[in-house]
Design brief:
The complex is a heterodimer of chains A (about 375) and B (about 110). Chain A is an all-alpha fold. Chain A has 13 helices and no strands. With about 110 residues, chain B is an alpha+beta fold. In chain B, strands 1-3-2 form a 3-stranded antiparallel β-sheet. The chains are: A mainly alpha (about 375), B alpha+beta (about 110). At the A-B interface, helix 2 and helix 4 of A face helix 3 and helix 4 of B.
Chain lengths: ~375, ~110
Amino acid sequence: MSTPAAVDQYLSDLAAGLAPTGRMRSRALAEAEDHLREHIAAQQAAGLPPAAAQQAAVRAFGPADVVARSITEAVAQGAVRRLFVLGAALFAVVTVASDLVTSDFAHLTATWLSDGFGTVFTWVIAQVALVAGAVTVIRAVAHTLSQAGTAQLYIARGMVVVAICSALALPVDAIGVFTGPGAARPAPTLLVIAATGAVLTAAAAALCQARRAGACLRSLGAAEMPPATIGTDVADAVARLRAAAQRRVPASAPLLRTAARCASGCRTRALRHAPWLGGWLDARSHPWRFALLALAPLAALTVIYAFVQAALTSAGWNVTTFAYPGLLAIIECALALAGYATLGPYLAMRHPVRAGARLSSYRTD
Amino acid sequence: MEGDLVRGHLDLMLLAVLSAGPLHGYGLVEELRRRSLGRLELPEGTVYPALYRLERQGLIGSYWSSDAPRRRRVYRLRAAGHAALGQKRKAWQDVMAAINTVIGDGA
């Protein structure tokens, strides 16, 4: 039987189902209470006794767990979307402003390390941001942002990494802290300080959104390893982009169809000749393969760089031409492995290591 | 009426109701019920997530009103919401016309 406490009980159930996300939670509860009380008043005005009116109002509002889940999903979608926009903006800033796109690669000479810890730090952290940002953008394209779920949790986590890296790298780089004796950095101008402040503010806002999104997504049970590998996500993202391009520019459809047919044909042929390739490239379960995959493009870049350098300086090329780029490639590979080991599980790029678990026993769904 | 069918078009209906003027949550549900002659069946609580989604998309705005005995959130349509309503209404009418053509009138 319904009691005068029926509304309180319902609101209590609703509160228990809502994610602890502060303002939106209290707003949802306030609106629900107002709605229920108004409904009860209307039912009583229509002649229903108080207990029956309360029961009718609560029943009409819907099961508390269903409503709570629905509200949490809506809040999570908003938070992930805002986080993505902020993270993408920071990602773009890191890409443009970091030392990665300046001349650090060419500066890999004896003076490089004398530039100070700040340069090395920025160089490393910018790459972490770039990898996390790239993976996140691929996931965001592959999985629509308007659905709350496991992919959204990892989109949020990727953007958290980007935000933290931006908050650390850009101020270090712009203000020139940790700068060594070999560096010739200009004194920070008002513009640089203002830009750094803006980056820090955006990073803080992104982390606030991440906290909210994380709380919502966890309460929705989105904490499992995503079923798709990065490779699957890339394929899904490409398919979505192709469909969007065909919709917007119908004239491009035949060309895109041909390209897709070619890619699919190559993949089928490759898998027919080497069926082991699909599982082999699942870097989530095989760290040393991940290192090889990371090293291969770097080794190629090293060789190309050495040849270009030799051609530009007309100095010919020899073993020393490869020395510094080779050192860079080795450091990069070590960094890739270290990043993979530490951030891999957090970004769902690698299965989490469980105590006593063997690599072969990890899920590879 | 089927709940899923109603939920699929809830955004359009909410925008249409709000185009007549600002309303709070319960008022919106009542207006939906009145306009549909009581034929729309959906848990009233599910209107709020839809409102939050529309608000996030910038189609509607909201503010706390203290006109009533209790503080309540009032929703109103924004300019972008008016434009979206026009597009959604047109899309719905096109789909409905196409489906009607396919299924006929049963005669």
